[in-house]
Write a structure and sequence with these properties.
The chain is of the alpha+beta class. The chain is built from 7 helices and 4 strands. This is DCC1-like thiol-disulfide oxidoreductase family protein.
């Protein structure tokens, strides 16, 4: 769980219909307190910090809790561990993604679906929105 005074930041792709629906459906605020949803395409200081740190947001969401930064499959796993059991979607989410092994197995398929959806919708990658600041190493 999270100390209710420690803000949680979820950095997601606001142009991805799956990502946007996912962050709306996860009932994290009920279980963990303050949650800020940040569109990875915005010029937000946290987005800049993450990109300059070498994390490629085209490869997955980011989650910052205090000084801890998570990326990709670890985000889904952490959110599942922090989510409450209210509602069908959250119960399913917790069951599927609270297992690190299941999350690591499923995440590449979810990312591929996201990338395909963005291509079909004609949307640019996050890297193109931020130019040379994007880290491609991690």
């Amino acid at each position: 769980m999270n100390d209710s005074d420690t803000p949680i930041y979820i950095v997601y792709d606001g142009e991805c219909p799956f990502c946007a629906a996912y962050v709306r459906m996860v009932r994290l605020r009920e279980a963990a307190g303050k949650v800020a949803l940040i569109n990875a395409r915005d010029k937000h200081p946290l987005v800049e910090e993450i990109l300059l740190g070498g994390i490629n947001l085209d490869e997955g969401m980011a989650l910052k809790i205090g000084d801890n930064l998570y990326h990709g499959a670890r985000v889904m796993n952490q959110l599942a561990l922090m989510s409450g059991p209210s509602g069908f979607f959250n119960r399913l989410h917790v069951w599927v993604f609270s297992s690190h092994a299941r999350t690591v197995f499923l995440y590449p398929f979810l990312r591929a679906g996201r990338n395909l959806a963005l291509r079909i919708l004609g949307r640019r990658k996050i890297a193109e929105s931020h130019g040379a600041k994007v880290g491609l190493g991690k």
